[in-house]
Amino acid sequence: MTKRATSFCLIGPGKVGSSLATALEQSGWRCRCVVRKGGGGSKLSRLKSVFHDADIVPHPSLVCSDFKILLIAVQDDKIQSVVTELSAFRQIDWSSKVVFHTSGMKRVGILSPLKKLGAAVGALHPIAAFANEYQPEAAHGICYDFFGDKAALSFARQITKLLTSRLIVLGSERQRALLHIASAIASNSTVVAVRSAEKLISSFVSPSDAKALTAGLLSSTVRNLSTNIGMKSLTGPLARGDVEVVSEHIKSLESERALLQFYKSWSQLGVELLLKDEHNRSRYSPNKRRTLKEIRRLLEEK
Q1: Does the residue 279 lie in any domain?
Q2: pTM to 2 decimal places
Q3: What dihedral do alpha carbons 246, 251, 255, 258 form, nearest 10°?
Q4: What is the C-alpha to C-alpha distance for residues 185 and 190, in angstroms, rounded to an integer?
Q5: Are residue 34 and residue 151 in the same domain, yes or no?
């Protein structure tokens, strides 16, 4: 007898939801139902072509009852209303269901109405940048963080194993918040930094050259980060303790106040990390530490 595929429903086929659900489908699970508020058009046609065996319904109260796992991947401010609608729908035996929301910040307690009805609940948050819909590769080989019930945890482990990913089990809502902030710093600040760099040189470098320049630099930086520990991946004037170059950078950015503030902020953080870097302390002689402190004073000047 063949093992029955795990069934799931998706509420919110946006970038995260559609990519995660597509990855699960391609890995052998079966999508039974997709809740998508809105009309028809090309987006609905695409949805039907990807999840051709699933019911496409416009409201949570119309979700089918034949599923094991429910993924709520709507925007954070919509989760509460979805849960309220679902908890009022008593045709489902929630005692046999597992409900995850994919938000990195909304508390697991927002799912408590469904937990009171018997469901196992948890937050399963993919730590990745989902820039496009139906991008299943973005859901594979990444980290997911989890916080919630033990019963939900076992299914979170199944999902991450299926998607050849790593599960980080957290112990509190504060840990979840800090991890989400860290993720935003690592990903979003990189996007802002790269686009800001391209804008800075846009008056004398073509858009294609600017993208090639930053893409090459970024890929080499990521490669260094993947192989080095501590601050060893840092290059340039901070790593060298080059006070004159940092001073020239600041002067050159005097007419770009927002960029100057950005430059000073991350440079100050960089100096502090260098001074406290236990992994590479031998790289920093007393003279190098002195120049780093000079750079710190320079960056603190108004």
Answers
A1: yes
A2: 0.88
A3: 20
A4: 7
A5: yes
